[in-house]
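Re: that chain you flagged

S.,

Sorry for the slow reply, it's been a week of failed gels. I finally had a moment to sit down with the sequence you sent. For the record, here it is as I used it:
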Amino acid sequence: MGTLNIMYRFPLESTFFGLTPEYRGLLFTQIHDLVYHGNGGFIHSEIYNMPIWMRRFHIQKINDFHKKQQEARDKQEKQQSNTDSISRPNIKPSSTYNFKK
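Prediction finished late last night. Pasting the structure tokens below so you have them in one place:
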């Protein structure tokens, strides 16, 4: 007796019960960003199962943190660029190396 090769075709090409490719890309980008930039605070399964509003909250907090760090760096660079010349230390030479016999 031969086997029946039946190919099941589904009339819907959309991913009704799954994620669209665009949303999957967004989800995996968010997962990567939170795992990588979260400094070990999150694992993949936690973020995958996390509510959307909570993922967005954590991403926004990380973005705010990095923005504040960048502003502090820019401020420091601006202060350093305002001082054009390097000043010498206010130390008078001493006779430390002048040994008397």
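What I noticed first: The two ends are 116 Å apart (CA to CA).

Talk soon,
D.
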